[in-house]
Amino acid sequence: MTIYNLGSVNADLVYRVPHLPGPGETLGAASLTHGLGGKGANMSVAAARAAARVVHIGAVGADGAWMVERLLEYGVDTRNIATVSETSGHAIIAVDDAGENLILIHGGANRAVPEAALDAALADAGPGDTFLTQNETNAQVAAARRAKARGCRIAYAAAPFDAAAVTEMLPFIDLLVLNAVEAEQLVAATGKDLGSLGVDDVVVTRGGEGARWIDARGGEVTDVPALPVSAVDTTGAGDTFTGYLVAGLDRGMPMRQALNLASRAAALMVTRSGTADVIPDLKEIEESRLG
């Protein structure tokens, strides 16, 4: 089967700092790295490294050819990434000595994905395939509507959180992934608990406490514990989790098995510095001593 991911493609500028800066603070960085990122690209790379077939749908500017080439190197089908007049998206990321991060994002080309290209991108999609998206591009609802009409499972990572965007997507979603803070915001915005949103499966990531799966069909809640690791950099860990989770389900794994795989991938990811370029592959996870 195939995962069609409408997602952002960013250049990540990562600064190592002794602590995250406060308001008005000027802080010197110990180092700077430049790499591939964006929630969409991260998830596409993670799913591809989890042995899924991934078609990325998105946009870059003329300055973003290197990012498309890198995605292709990582096993992602890039034929549906458009080149537009806007500059490519980028993120400025500060990572402190405890592995926590602060991120500033410029959407750029990610907010200019041509809607006219969606039908061509999803032309071969059908039952058994998965459509995945996040909140860093335009056209999520338009693409989800097209994918749903073709019989795809719709997976949605509700980040960066926007209550209006999530509410508009709810009628299409089969799998919703969000973190604990986003979950609280969604409950407050909708007045509904997570099991009453009309979404079959809701997964809440909770950092060091692991993840919680809410099976709305069966009315069951399952907690998946986190694996104990020493975090170096939490950037991209949630995206790695989501990419591996969706890939596991695409490969026919039961939800609990896919969650276990995603947890191991995210745990290994936080022991590394970087984003898409350092997402682990299946072999690395299998050879690790985690879990």
From TrEMBL:
GO molecular function, one term: metal ion binding
Keywords annotated in UniProt: ATP-binding, Carbohydrate metabolism, Cytoplasm, Kinase, Magnesium, Metal-binding, Nucleotide-binding, Potassium, Transferase
Any one Gene Ontology cellular component term annotated for this protein: cytoplasm
Pathway given in the UniProt record: Carbohydrate metabolism; D-ribose degradation; D-ribose 5-phosphate from beta-D-ribopyranose: step 2/2
Function: Catalyzes the phosphorylation of ribose at O-5 in a reaction requiring ATP and magnesium. The resulting D-ribose-5-phosphate can then be used either for sythesis of nucleotides, histidine, and tryptophan, or as a component of the pentose phosphate pathway.
Name by which UniProt lists this protein: Ribokinase
Similarity field: Belongs to the carbohydrate kinase PfkB family. Ribokinase subfamily.
UniProt keyword NAD present: no
Gene3D superfamilies named among the record's database cross-references: 3.40.1190.20
Species per Swiss-Prot/TrEMBL record: Roseivivax halodurans JCM 10272
Positions with a binding annotation for ATP: 179, 205-210, 238-239
Domain Carbohydrate kinase PfkB: 6-280
